[in-house]
Task: inverse folding
DNA sequence: TACGCGTGGAC
DNA sequence: TGTCCAAGCGT
């Protein structure tokens, strides 16, 4: 089969598959609504794309609804206090996304008159919006003929063409291969169809090659080695770190503090605690960092938490008392309004079960 | 280019 | 207390 003919067939079969069994997502305009004239709202699409970065649809969905209920348009979000946005994001992870989300909303209001840029190049200048997100928003909302490449697309294309180079070095090659096939006429549908194919059919493990619309062309599939692609550099083992936090309760309030704006969990709240180091410290050494000299009780079991690049074990110490002025006393009845990451919520639960 | 950056689910 | 992974971005 000639290459140009194959590309036509790849486009046709993928879009036919999408039209027949495209999945429904909360932020996706359904075909019947589109036929009735409904247009994708860039604010809603932007919000969904930022949340979906490295995050599963099932994790994103409740947050997406919550954000839209609290802040129905970009102006509402821009006017909200940043800490309120961080608190609403708490639990979703990768908190730089929330900081950039709020910053971006402010830019849209201050520099763009409340209207999102309508080109890939314009979107790319926004904080938190990279090559994937710019391509996705511009094609989905404005029909621009972009080349959407996310992790799903990388997997599908690397299998289709049996790309031998290892990720992440193979990115440039995969991007070029994907761009040749991308359909400029239905750019948004094509991109979403390809991502759906990756997430539902061409999965990392146990790909369903038998029901893939691209089975006729897939080199790795035909060779029976789809699961071996994409080739990747093997990851190093995750280091371990240890630390301690202090849960000080007084009159229905607990002592919190805010983390520095940059770096891990930047701008989020936390229980006061020690630095996190490579070695387990003795109890008296940990207690030297306590916010007070109360009679601390140690939880029997450490709280464990897995970050992207290390695993953390936290000792949790509990005490009662209010003679501390450095920090923020947070009401236990309204902890959900604080920007507490999952790690700290785990530690709080552990302290409360003591 | 390579690394830092969360979390929870599937296996 | 294992491994891998998810609609990536910023530095």
Result:
């Amino acid at each position: 089969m000639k290459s140009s003919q194959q590309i036509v067939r790849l486009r046709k079969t993928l879009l036919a598959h999408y039209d027949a069994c495209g999945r429904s997502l909360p932020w996706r305009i359904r075909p019947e609504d589109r036929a009735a004239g409904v247009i994708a709202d860039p604010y809603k699409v932007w919000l969904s794309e930022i949340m979906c970065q490295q995050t599963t649809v099932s994790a994103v969905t409740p947050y997406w609804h919550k954000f839209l209920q609290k802040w129905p348009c970009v102006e509402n979000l821009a006017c909200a206090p940043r800490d309120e946005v961080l608190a609403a994001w708490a639990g979703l992870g990768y908190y730089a996304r929330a900081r950039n989300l709020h910053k971006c909303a402010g830019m849209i209001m201050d520099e763009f008159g409340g209207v999102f840029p309508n080109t890939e190049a314009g979107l790319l200048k926004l904080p938190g919006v990279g090559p994937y997100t710019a391509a996705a928003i511009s094609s989905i909302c404005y029909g621009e003929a972009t080349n959407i490449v996310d992790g799903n697309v990388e997997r599908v294309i690397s299998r289709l063409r049996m790309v031998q180079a290892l990720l992440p070095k193979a990115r440039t090659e995969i991007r070029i291969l994907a761009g040749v096939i991308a359909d400029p006429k239905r750019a948004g549908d094509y991109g979403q169809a390809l991502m759906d194919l990756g997430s539902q059919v061409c999965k990392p493990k146990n790909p369903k090659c038998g029901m893939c619309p691209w089975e006729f062309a897939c080199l790795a599939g035909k060779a029976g080695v789809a699961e071996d692609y994409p080739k990747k550099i093997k990851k190093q083992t995750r280091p371990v770190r240890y630390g301690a936090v202090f849960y000080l309760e007084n009159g229905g309030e607990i002592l919190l503090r805010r983390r520095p704006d940059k770096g891990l969990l930047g701008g989020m709240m936390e229980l006061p605690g020690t630095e996190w180091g490579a070695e387990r410290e003795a109890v008296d050494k940990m207690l030297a960092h306590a916010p007070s000299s109360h009679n601390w009780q140690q939880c029997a079991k450490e709280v464990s938490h897995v970050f992207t690049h290390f695993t953390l074990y936290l000792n949790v110490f509990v005490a009662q008392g209010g003679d501390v002025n450095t920090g923020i006393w947070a009401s236990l009845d309204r902890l959900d309004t604080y920007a507490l990451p999952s790690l700290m919520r785990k530690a709080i639960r552990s302290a409360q079960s003591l």
